[in-house]
Amino acid sequence: ASSRFKCFVPASFAGPQNLRWLSTEATATEPAESAIVPAAARQSKKEKPPWYDDPAMWKSNAKKKQLTDKKERIKISPRKLGLIVRPIRGLNLDEALIQMRLSTKKKSVHVRQLLWKMRETCINEHNMDPSRLVLTEIFANKAQYLKRINFHAKGQHGIRFKYYAHLFATITEVPPVEGEVRVGKHTQDQYDQRLARAHGESARLRERATRKRTAPQIHLGETRQKVQMAQDRSREGRNLEET
Fold first, then answer.
1. pTM score, whole prediction
2. Region 19-47: what's the mean pLDDT?
3. Cα dihedral sign for 69, 73, 79, 81?
4. First CA to last CA distance, the chain
5. Is the pLDDT of residue 41 over 80?
6. Cα–Cα dist 15/23, whole Å
7. How far apart are CA 142 and CA 163, in angstroms?
């Protein structure tokens, strides 16, 4: 009898939504459709825009250059919400959406919803270029705080606050500049500055380490001797003043 080798095949490869058992005989006649994309298709490069080599050719067709929107009464303190949105301030809009999609913070979904709604508004209503959108400003403000009773032991009580925050964001369509590596916060000039600053700090650290190694070592005996000599001089000075 021929042996039947069974294997688990996920639903993304073939069959219904749940997992199913497939045998080698079934796959020989009806091979499962693979959901894996070929490497050649994955590596297909996007076509560069006509103004890529010459930024002066770029022309904006937007009705307005900037869009501001807000999301009110998010149940989180403004300090915590500010910590979530601080890293994405200045990034281009696509990168900001990716960062919020990968964030482990539960309230990052509110930031993602606001940015996605603003992106659709910029493209569909104001005819902005989706590849030139930058999140120039995003911050959180204090909303209404609700006071509740916080019950303590022995009949005591205190005040417990329920925190709410408002989220504000501004998206701007920025023109291309010559020599830019990416749109948004990390441009070529800023990258060069940060690289030079990092090299300067490493050079200072190396110089400080070298100076520490070459510094003369003062032994404990020499230090005590210097202290004793200073005390003797001060004692002699006092004796001269008394005489």
1. 0.59
2. 45
3. negative
4. 123
5. no
6. 13
7. 8
Rg, C-alpha atoms of the chain: 33
The string of pLDDT tens digits covering residues 113-170 is: 999 999 999 999 999 999 999 999 999 999 999 999 999 999 999 999 999 999 999 9
**φ, ψ at 52 (rounded to 5°):** -65, -45
CB 118 within 8 A of CB 111: no
Output the six-digit token pair for 219.
């032994």
Q: How many CA atoms lie within 13 A of 128 on its CB side?
A: 23
Residue 66's φ and ψ, nearest 5 degrees, are: -145, 145
Token pair of 16 as six digits: 């219904």
For residue 180, the tally of other CB atoms under 10 A from its CB is: 15
Tokens 């696509």 identify what position?
94
Mean pLDDT of the chain: 77
DSSP conformation letters of the chain: -----EEEE-TTTSSSSS-EEEEHHHHHHSPPPP-PPPHHHHTPPPPPPTTSS-GGG-----S-SEEEEEEEEESS-HHHHHHHHGGGTTBBHHHHHHHHHH---TTHHHHHHHHHHHHHHHHHTS---GGGEEEEEEEEEE-PPEEEEEE-STT-EEEEEE--EEEEEEEEEPPP-TT-SSSBS--HHHHHHHHHHHHHHHHHHHHHHHHHHHSPPPPHHHHHHHHHHHHHHHHHHHHHHH-
